[in-house]
Amino acid sequence: MPTSDLQPSTPPTPSTTRTAARRRIPLTRGPGLIALVAGVAVLALVAGLVAGRTVLSSSAAEPSAPEERSITAPLETRVISSTITARADITYADAVDLDIDVSSLSGPSVVTGRVPEVGAVVDAAQVVIEVAGRPVIALPGELPAYRSLRAGYSGPDVLQLKAALASLGIDPGDAASDLYDASTAAAVDELYRRAGYPSPVSSPDARRAVESAERAVSDAAAQVAAARSALEAAGSGASAAERLAADNAVRQAQRELDAAAATGAPQAQLDTLADAVELAKARRAELDRSPNVSDQQASLDSALAAQNQAEVELARARDDALTPLPASEVRYLTSLPRRVDAVSVHRGDLLTADAVSLSGAAIRLDGTISSADAEHLVVGQPAVFVTEDGRELQAVLREVADDPDGDEKRRRLILDPSGVDQATMDSLRGTNVRVTIPIESTDGEVLAAPVAALTAGPAGESRVAVVDETSGDESLVTVTTGLSAGGYVEVRSDDPRLRPGVRVVVGR
């Protein structure tokens, strides 16, 4: 190879360099090019292996885990309320059948009129139906009419009748007495007058018996008057005229004796005249003594006894004639007014036990609940019921009673709607609704945290993990808890970090 190619005499310029390069390209073709490419590939492989080892070494030395994030929720201000939920049917209260005791009727119990219409309202003292020409009158009361009442009867049913009459403004006499007397009968007369029917009678012969007893009393009174006059006449003694005549007789006898003595009449004549004087004096003294009236007194006593007996018989007859109250003509209902739900008879039909079905005119909610939940309820508690279309309406707990099916694990709930108009309740009748009854509630809004946010500290204290709004750091705050319900719990703390809107950790 020439020396000039290895050691040029002058440094190459850029142009000469490019020219030389262009000139050297042909020199690299063939085996030289293959060698050059192979060398570059080897160098790249070595560099990749070194770099990969470096990355693997770095990863093994400092592994990176995915960042852990907490699940949070904000603190809120809300009313926390613990509730009991039940299902209830909307229905008219206390449905009953118009069962009437018709045993006192003399004939068949045919419905003769006053058949009510479905939907009609029956109030106190109103005729529900007419049977055998007689009314069946509705009265307030809990006891059934288990017997017909008449004068002289006593018992709790009489007290109930008097209370019912008094509630209608009808004076029954002594309302505290359980005796059915003349005042009670007069009040029953007024009840029938208001109903538009004649009062019932005890028997067809009652009036005739009274008239006969009244005549007996009148006759006995006349006999008493006659006996009393005879007694008075016998007991009055001599009259003034009789006493004066007797005095005159004594004086006359004495004058005759004196005249005979003055004329020197024989002694025998004088003795006779002296006897006449003594006789006149004895008769005069007789007039001053009390008369014997024992016979007249006995006659009067007998007449008085007869009069007393006649008056007793009259009182009994009058009691028998007082207005009674047949059991078939009254129906006691625990509450009034009532609504007619169903009628299964027409005029001319025989009365049946289910001829007329009545229910309370007011609609109620009737449901059941477990006995355990019922222990937390108090009559008068407010409640909310939700209709099928989502409306929330108010109600008040009226009664907690035994389960109608006798299930000891269940209790019956009766609620009255509150502030709901009758038209709305009528439209809801027959539906089943969800009832919610709050049994405990906070006094207004309180600071509340999700129950899941609470954790227990080493001493058993309650804590929440508060998340800093800026840094995201978490810090534990000890809290005092209150009422818990619906997934939230009341929390209290003096720590200023505990306020509405601050987020707390509820999960990881």
Protein architecture, described:
The chain is an alpha+beta fold and 508 residues long. The protein folds into four domains: 69-93 and 362-508, Elongation Factor Tu (Ef-tu), domain 3, CATH 2.40.30.170; 94-144 and 332-361; 149-202, no CATH class; 210-319. The chain has helices spanning 3-6, 14-28, 31-61, 156-167, 182-195, 206-235, 240-262, 267-288, 294-321, 371-374, 422-428; strands at residues 71-74, 76-78, 81-92, 96-97, 111-113, 121-122, 127-131, 134-140, 330-333, 338-343, 356-360, 363-370, 382-386, 392-402, 410-418, 432-441, 446-450, 455-456, 462-467, 474-485, 488-492, 503-507. The strands form five sheets. Strands 2-17-21-20-19-18 form a six-stranded antiparallel beta sheet, with no helix packed on it. The chain has a six-stranded antiparallel β-barrel with strand order 3-12-15-14-13-16. A four-stranded antiparallel beta sheet has the order 4-11-10-6, with no helix packed on it. Strand 18 (455-456) and strand 19 form a beta hairpin. Helix 6 (206-235) runs antiparallel to helix 9 (294-321). It is elongated and about 175 Å long. The model is unreliable at 1-47 and 49-66 (pLDDT under 50).
